[in-house]
Write a structure and sequence with these properties.
The chain has helices at 12-27, 38-50, 70-81, 91-104, 107-118, 233-249, 259-271, 277-305, 314-336, 352-359, 370-381; strands spanning 124-127, 143-147, 150-161, 168-174, 185-191, 197-202, 211-222, 226-227. The chain is of the alpha+beta class. Helix 4 runs antiparallel to helix 5, helix 7 (259-271) packs parallel to helix 9 (314-336) and helix 9 packs antiparallel against helix 11. It is globular. It binds flavin-adenine dinucleotide. Flavin-adenine dinucleotide is lined by residues 125-129, 134-135, 159-161, 211, 362, 365-366, 368-369, 371-372, 375.
Length: 405
């Protein structure tokens, strides 16, 4: 962020002028609204960056940003989120990779990567999870070995969202197995198109393929593509997961959003169940829960606007989003039955609503499972005693648990 980014005082007049600028920009792009293609999303971000708006609002101009304040950023998000979605696929790029490269990158890394990342010219993914290391991600086995002026990466990641269309990614790998599990890890910027990267899409229940297995075989990475200090991979991974939970759990910067309620109302209207008092009661429960989630999101965003890095409180919004998804799925099944999860080829929505119901299962897994969020809230928000850890103080190489078992 800019030095001025956290000094966010804007007069009412300045805020109104900037808000109108954002509204004018959004209103001038009707073709990019609704369910945009990846190309339209990229174009939207390129246009926004060129207009001094978009993901780069609070970032310095020398790195491709607009050099404005977090107050401007909040207004931009509020306006953007009041229009139908215009930027499919950029949650990881802009919600996580952008702040990470900005917070931890060197001046040279920021000069090289941030302008294209902000303008959507490049798409980024994140690579933590491995077949044996998901919740216990510090057990990861992907190796990074220094060979002259290059890192050589070998190993496998899994569930990597959008790896198949990404240009770059941030990956955590183990560079020193003689250190304890959470030390000896570092974060790297990887070129997803480089030789040594093999990407295999995973096929989903709804027919899509949004995430992948990623294999690294002697992938060579320039030495200076290390992000942050050597051996700080765990610290950076934790910071990135906090950004992820905020991006998922406190998505958008606007007011109260009730997307699940809106979807269920649509189901209930078309099936004639809207007059059923039990259904109405359930719909109002979802409405209340989504309103509460929006208020949590607004609080988290306000903390970020005040210059605070997102903390474990982000887990609250993330967990609540998952609870809402569970509830939505149950109610959708009750209202629309099998129609909430299956569709014909001639469905006018192409199955997009049913896909939403099917994908709702992911809400309790992606970005850390519900159980892990509850552990974080217990340990780090409520201050409850931590679970016993049998791996504390033992070099990773000597562990007999986790992926070393
Ligand atoms: C849609 C989607 C997108 C994803 N995108 C990405 C991505 O882009 N990049 C990436 O790196 N990863 C991604 N993931 C992976 C995701 O982060 C992991 O799936 C998640 O962290 C869980 O890990 P796991 O699947 O290995 O399950 P496991 O860790 O094996 O967990 C299995 C079960 O055990 C429970 N459990 C495990 N440990 C504990 C504990 N200590 N206390 C209580 N319960 C526990 C879990 O809650 C879960 O119910 C994605 C996943 C999904 C579903």
């Amino acid at each position: 962020m800019t030095d001025t980014a956290t000094t966010s005082a804007l007069t009412d007049d300045e805020a109104a002028v900037f808000r109108q600028r954002c509204i004018d920009f959004m209103e001038s792009r009707p073709e990019q609204r609704g369910a945009p293609t990846p190309e339209q999303s990229r174009q939207f971000h390129a246009d926004a960056a060129a207009a001094g708006l978009g993901a780069g609002v609070p970032y310095p101009a020398e790195y491709g940003g607009a050099g404005l304040t977090l107050a401007h950023d909040k207004i931009w998000r509020e306006v953007k989120d009041s229009f139908p979605v215009m930027e499919a696929d950029f949650v990881i790029s802009h919600g996580m990779c952008l702040p990470m490269v900005n917070d931890h990158g060197t001046h040279e890394q920021k000069l090289r990567f941030l302008p294209d990342l902000i303008s959507g010219t490049t798409l980024w993914c994140q690579m933590f999870s491995e077949p044996g290391a998901g919740s216990d991600v510090a057990s990861l086995q992907t190796k990074a070995e220094l060979d002259g002026d290059q890192w050589v990466i070998n190993g496998q990641k899994v569930w990597t969202t959008l790896a198949h269309v990404s240009d770059y990614g941030l990956a955590v790998a183990r560079n020193d197995p003689d250190q304890v599990k959470h030390a000896g890890l570092s974060m790297f910027i990887l070129d997803m198109k480089a030789p040594g990267v093999e990407i295999r899409p995973i096929h989903q229940i709804d027919g899509g393929s949004h995430f992948n297995e990623v294999f690294f075989t002697d992938l060579h990475v320039p030495k200076d593509w290390l992000l942050g200090e050597l051996n700080t991979g765990w610290k950076l991974a934790t910071a990135m997961l906090m950004y992820e939970r905020v991006a998922i759990g406190a998505g958008g910067g606007g007011g109260v959003n009730t997307p699940m309620f809106d979807l269920l109302c649509k189901y209930a209207t078309s099936s004639g169940a809207l007059d059923n008092p039990v259904v109405r009661d359930e719909l109002m429960q979802v409405y209340s829960m989504e309103t509460t989630k929006s208020l949590i999101a607004m609080r988290t965003r306000a903390e970020m606007k005040a210059g605070k890095t997102p903390g474990p409180g982000g887990s609250l919004g993330k967990l609540y989003g998952s609870v809402i998804s569970w509830k939505m799925r149950d109610i959708a099944l009750g209202i629309a039955g099998v129609g909430s999860i299956a569709w014909d080829d001639d469905n006018p929505y192409g199955g997009s609503e049913q896909s939403l119901t099917l994908r709702s299962f992911a809400a309790g897994i992606a970005g850390g499972t519900d159980e892990i969020q509850r552990n974080i809230i217990g340990d780090r928000v409520l201050g409850l005693p931590r679970e016993p850890a049998v791996d504390r103080g033992v070099p990773f190489r000597d562990l007999k648990v986790g992926t070393q078992a």
